[in-house]
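Task: complex structure prediction.
Instruction: return structure tokens for all chains below.
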Amino acid sequence: MDIQTFVKHFAAQFDETDSKDITAQTAFRSLEEWSSMVALSVIAFVDEEYQTTITGDDIRGALTVEDIFNKVVEKKA
Amino acid sequence: MLIEKYGVTLRRLEDETDIELVRQWRNSPEVNQFMFFRDHITPEMQKSWFERINNQMNYYFIIERKHEKIGLANLKGIDYATKKAETGIFIGEEKHRMDLAGVQATAALLDFGFEELKLASLHAHIVPDNIAAISFNKALGFKLKSTEEHLYELTKEDYDIKKIKIQKVLAKIE
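Output:
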């Protein structure tokens, strides 16, 4: 698992937001397009790509994209 | 009337305390900024509004999550002849605005509209500045019908396609 691939997948969940605006350090809730639907899409791609289930609470507890990545790493360990 | 699905409860708006709570949410800058009608709503205006919408042409639901009241979801202006209605939702409690409550409540509401009321299509007017809501609704299958009216439409067929992924994820995390 590498963070750059994760960030690419994360950015792909947005339709209107330029992927260049999303990095590991992005505070994703500050993105104008962020909504509960994007949160659901993030949960779906983590499930499909990493065979791990993260929850709404996991996302709620995260500030940056990297925080979610770290949660996935922790759950897969 | 109660709908319990996807980890949320939709409770039909009828309690006076809830009507006042909706007024407070609706007047808050965070909610008001994304409404077409932005005037301050007085208790009298709210009472008059509730008297107009408290009928079978309109379903307004308080959204509850873990017994906490967090927002409002609605199907309004229901035309049972053409099987059409307008839909809308807002999360009034800030801490739930960015979590999954919005999609959970919306899925429960749309299932009710399409499966119980047998509606064929729903429409939504979305303020153009509300990028998150536009993106949210497109992900549900809504398509832009009128740029001038900021009008989006969702057919049952389009929702049936999109809801597969939504239900799968919601079932997994419930």
